[in-house]
Amino acid sequence: MTPFPVVLSAPSGAGKTTIARELMQRRGDVGYSVSCTTRTARAHERNGHDYHFLADSDFQARVAAGEFAEWALVHGKRYGTLRSEVQRVLDAGKFVLMDIDVQGARQFVTAFPASVLVFVLPPSVEALVARLKGRNTESPADLAVRLNTAHAELQDVGRYNYVVVNDALDQAVENVSRIIDAERLKRDRVHALDAQISRLLVELQDQIDRIRGAAR
Fold it and tell me: Would 96 be classed as within a structural domain?
């Protein structure tokens, strides 16, 4: 089985990052591609762990060099995923868990067509607003921008393969895990399936011929 990227998108505050972290703790076959951003790190965030925090000039140079599988301008800051980061995790034999917005997802699936797209929904607008306010990092103006972005992002749900409602974290994490397991068993993801089927057909025909020969 060849591993593939799993893209989680959601309005800011819906909990996709928390789901991603929980999923990696529960599954050893899941790896995380660390994204790049030009925004300032929050107090609890570490460079190279939560994000690669880049200067705007460095980010733009990497865009020009074609190093990003996707990138977007979100809330006035640049976010992007390096192709090398994704390939690093895939080469380790792990599913790549992506935490990117809808703009990035559109580009990413072009770069990595085998990706599975999962949209994470908040249980309600009230819950979404409460989570954003609970961060204590959003000014009223920032909150309005994020909610306006969420309004636009929700209109893109139809592009996704799956939708998971994050009304209970454990269940949401389990649902994403089940999606990975279901997708890895799909016919077009099974490595060398045609060769396996051909071999089985030859072996079955051999058994049939032997049985018929013995019955004569």
Answer: yes
